[in-house]
What we know:
A: 643 residues; 26 helices; B: 83% helix
Amino acid sequence: MIASLVSLLAAAAILLAAFGLGRPIWRGLRTGHDDPLETTVWSVGLGLVAFGTLWTLLGVAGLLYRELIAVLTVAAAFWALGEWLQASMQRSADRRLARRTPTKPEEPTSRIAAPSENLLKLLAACCFVALLASLTSALAPPTAGDALCYHLELPKRFLAEHRLAFLPDHENSTFPLLVEMWYLWALALDGGVAAQLIHWALGAWLALSAVVLARPIIGRDWAWLAGAIVLLTPGVTNQMTAPLNDVGLATMTTLAVAAWWRAAIDDESPRWYLIAGLFLGAALGTKYLALLFTAAWFGTWIVLAFHQRERLTPWLRGAATMLVLAATLAGPWYARAAWHRGNPVYPFFQSFVDDGATATIRESKLALGRTPWGLAAAPWAVTMSPDRFGGRGHQLGCAFLALLPGVLLARRLRGVRILLGISAAYVLGWFLLRQNVRFLYPLLPLWAAPCAWVWIESRRLPRLHSSLVTLSLLGVVALGALWPVYRARNHWAVALGMESRVRYLQRTEPSYPAALLANLLADEETQILSQDNRGFYFAANVTQESLYRRRTGYNQSGRDLATTLRNDGFQYLLLAESTGDDGIEFDGTLSRLVDRQLRTDGEANFRQLAEYNFQDTDGAARHYRLLRIEPITMTATRNRPLH
Amino acid sequence: MVAAQRESTAKSPALGKARRQLATMFGFDRPSDASAARAERIAPWRATLFTAWCLVVCAAYAWSLFRAFN
């Protein structure tokens, strides 16, 4: 329980510090939106981007020290408390003034009749359940494969080396890593659980961003429905329980579009373009996928500009502002990749720079192919069979598929067509490049506002139809709240401290038993060559065997294996094999070579330290072996004849 | 039509009461909405089509979940 509280405290300190830095930036931008929701959402968002950029710069300068990060966090958190105190004093003074001066009755914020209080209460209850249950899961130590391979592994390595080190045998080390900079922040203050809590908070922020985006389109009250639809998407609550980056990306793209909307569509202050540019830069600094989103967004904007030529000049100015800011913020990540790999978006489109490179856009990633009927079937297939598109855990639920076609019978609402235009362009790119369901997350808030509009319009259906539609949608919403409860069934014990984190990891994380032993024998300088890429729980440096093999071709050199590995600095090997039909398939090259050498030389070069079988919660069985590469002196001693 | 509705409610008072409660609970019977809605009801065939679509999607999704868990 203490461990969970410490992690919660670390995550809260990060959000508070982000608010502390973001609030003055938000105030300085003078957008004229000062209500508590907008202030909090934009301030924390801006603060996170500013801190992420700061950690990046410190990483480039080789100054990533825990102590420095902690001092800056505490300073910003205290600043936030000061800001909060000042704001609450201002509010109470305003209230006193308001009591003295008679006020006019408040005008409705939208022409659309407000939703019933019971509907809002039901949505709030569902969101509360989903948030609490996903928080429970987020408090369990991270075990998601991608998180242990790179989302947490890379920040751990950067923190250990105090800089943004280039790791040649780590494909992801030259990716844009803004979200990972926030995880580095959490690792510096606490550990993997705090990092996981940051992604949980980003999920909540995604829902709030959807509310902020939907406000000018469907009104303040109904915007909460859009936020609830996003939050209750099963894939979103699932991602909130793991330190990945898809929800983080979606939050950044949504805030960028919401800021752009105010400047470009609602003709508010052009300063909104600055905010849009910052968040666009943050999105591009999070994941390459943001390039596709940017293309879809700006493509739609160009089409709009053809229809509204009188707005061309301010829009051109705004677009230039956004692009310059975004390039400034995200550019260093792409320049870093170009510097180290010769390709700013490595490993994607590598075949353009290297003739011998394997294609990164593979047919295996295109479950529906590239046919027109595949595109037509995509919405149904993605909803009903998400396992074909990256896994059921990332599924979208059925609310979007059920509601979105309803725009055909709903009255036209200003803005809906723009959101759907951006979505259509993005979906086309998604369909042609990489059909993974979680890559659709940036569209969820763009779909949520039209979905909420269809829900509103369903009140125009005849009573029986309306009741049936409402009941089925309420069922979908309730199911969205129950998903995280179901998922949390294995996590509440460790979240509440009734099961220790070590015990939990021994039970659920396949690489953990090997990591425990390796951490007793090795230190941060030690090099482990591993067939399993899950390196986060190892104190030593874990090199991914597949990438090392691709770079060096060690298996085809014809030299003695042990000598080759020893010369390349490795001291330990972690061999992993699948023993069942399901689950991950490991490449067996290293295992075969080691077994061959064990048969000929015995344990002269490789000494087996541990061996175990592990069964995942999904039933996949794995076999692990941890071996020490015997130092050359020991090999010589062993081989010396006895007299 | 109103008379027909009243009649059907009278035939099945429990159903009528449940329907009224649902409408009250989620705000479909508000005076402002009701007048606007009466003025611009969606055509029955389109309403039926959309309702059927919603129900089919929800049922198919429930079935896909059932298959995934079994």
